[in-house]
Design a protein that fits this description.
584 residues; alpha+beta; Uridine Diphospho-n-acetylenolpyruvylglucosamine Reductase, domain 3; Vanillyl-alcohol Oxidase, Chain A, domain 3; 7-stranded antiparallel sheet; 5-stranded antiparallel sheet; 20 helices; 16% strand; globular; disordered N terminus; disordered C terminus; flavin adenine dinucleotide binding; flavoprotein; FAD-bd_PCMH; D-lactate dehydrogenase (NAD+) activity; FAD
Amino acid sequence: MFSKLGKNGGRLSKRFVRYNSSINRNNSKNPLLAYTFAAIGFSGAGYFIGKALSKEPLPTSSDRSTSPLSTLSSPQYANEKDFEAGLLKIVEIVGHENASFDKDVLLAQNDSFYSTHHPPNPDVQKPSAVIYPTSTEQVSEIMKVAHQYRIPIVANSGLTSLEGQNIHTRGPYSISLSFQNMNQIVAFHPDDLDIVVQPGVGWQELDDFLLGDPKGKNLKFGPDPGIGANIGGMVGTSASGTNAFKYGTMKENVVNLTVVLADGTIIKTRQRPRKSSAGYHLTRLFIGSEGTLGIVTEITLKLHVRPRYEFITVAAFPSIKDAASAAETIIAQGIQPNAMEILNETMMSFVNETSDGDKQNLETPTLFFKLGGPTLESTEEQANLVDEIAKKNNVMKLQRSTNDEENAELWAARRNGLWSTFQYGSKVLKDKDDVQVWTTDVAVPISKLSLVISEINDYLIEKGFKDRFSVMGHIGDGNCHFIILYNSPDYDKVHHVVDHMVERALSHDGTCTGEHGVGVGKRKYLPLELGVEAIDTMRQIKLALDPRRILNPDKIFKIDPEENLDEQLDQGSVKVKPNCMHNH
């Protein structure tokens, strides 16, 4: 084939030479034509030389592929009069029964008590109304009004975000759009292994639905983030959880989305086939966008076959390095646990201290495995291979479950790790009535995880946080979480420690956030990780889809050159809530 192309190419080049030579021969016989072509040649050359010497005008913002912050003016949002006019129309759309102006409700919508980050100016940065739509069509009508009156909209589903995604930075003339009433299973296709849900459906409720359905009891949804998380928020932050090593993150588990754009336009990102190369991958564009590009109102999720057999193996090691070495060997040998988690020695001690039963866990770095398969033999074989690898990496104690009851018992330490840290905090902090917890995550290539955990661990101890932090990680994908206990006056100190954590992760080709999203808490790190040009590209996409900048303003990156939210956060001016859920 290539030889034929070569021959054809040769014939084409010869014909081109002959064509040119024939023109030259003909021109030589006609002096007038020759002079004409010469004149055209000189004038053409003059044109291109002049073009080259003339100064090109600078591109306008509309000519750019990116949107540097310096090229933007501050967004203009609704004043009190416009807001009231728009709000009246929105309430008419949903009905008075689906709108709330209650002070406590407004506070809860604005300030996620799961988050370390709270509104710097809570008296101003708050919504004036909470709207509860019941359909995609209602959301569309709401957005048409919001777009017309330039009303900021912050959508939410479960209010469990950790990086301040729900803060109304453009309050008080803003609206919280709650998906509390959009919590239905829309369609279930067991033969296709997918299910269509509204954003207010919780992942745990989804699992209960599948277990209770005759055609769904052998199926499961892969991602399993924190308790209380809903599908809408999981899409917004591209959440994952302990099962990510086997089943992936939300990006790998969403088939398509129905999205309402800033002006009320309704789009569906693709159809239901698992495989499609039809145009841009809009589904992935909206996953992880935290409600800044559009409002997701319907999600088609992939389902997986539930393992028929599943064991829990717990392996305690003398060091993080030994545990990480075992995990890396398991991955390298192609063994595929359903979950592979690591808890450091401090976390294990917190679990023991808050356990109702006898202390049974070694307080050393510990790996937790979910090992499953279609047959008992294949599952046992996988568990035996894990045991062998653990023994070669200096394992100190091995435990394996044999039934569902033991599964729950052994996995309890991993499941309760976060809550154990909350409970233990009241025992170790100076002010036991002011227990605050900063939960953050980073992710690095798998081979770097043990090094990064060790570096950050040593730094935390150096800065005075010994026995006041714990580590748990999804070691199968290089994602680790640090949970730091502190009293409110130490906010600045903790903030600087988190800065260092991110710096260490980025220095090892990592990311500032593995699964919590960016919000306002991780926003300042994004240019360091991706570069200013990448952020400018994101901003261009934002402006194309939301030109009035009304969708969850100021999250992920700056959209206003005059806004100084990062500086407020750096200075510790965020008001830490004394009555937040961390005080349990």
